[in-house]
Amino acid sequence: EAFIDTGWRAGTYLPLHSTTAGRVVLAFMDPARADELIDGLPMERLTAETVADPARLRKIVAEVRRQGFSAQRGETTAGIATVAVPVLGEKQAIIGVLGFAFPAHAVAASKEKSLVALLHRSARVLSQRMGCAVYPFGSDERAAPARPRLRSL
Fold this sequence. Notes:
alpha+beta; disordered C terminus; 153 residues
């Protein structure tokens, strides 16, 4: 596989509307505040795939809230796909986001659910350590990939 340089570095600002992390934050924050933010976003396109319509973004955010994860392909950088899930604290308040970014050609969209299952498993542990009594997503272990078996020596 070839290295793909996204051009993004630690500390780089990416618009809230164009990232899976931003969409997860919008989905799990106070809905009135999320609407205010969406109304005030400049909605610039980073690529031809970037969602730049507030009504469409609201639908995406509602779906993220329902399913517990966000996924997108090519919206921040052509050829890059991302998936992300919430990390929750006390009273299920969002305190962070856990995600993966990967070359879109390396993982078929149909295989993203297995990545989401891994993220939910880790986010559940982090969330519980941060005071979240019940992490509401990813409890269907059938969706999670099987753990590799280690051979005995």
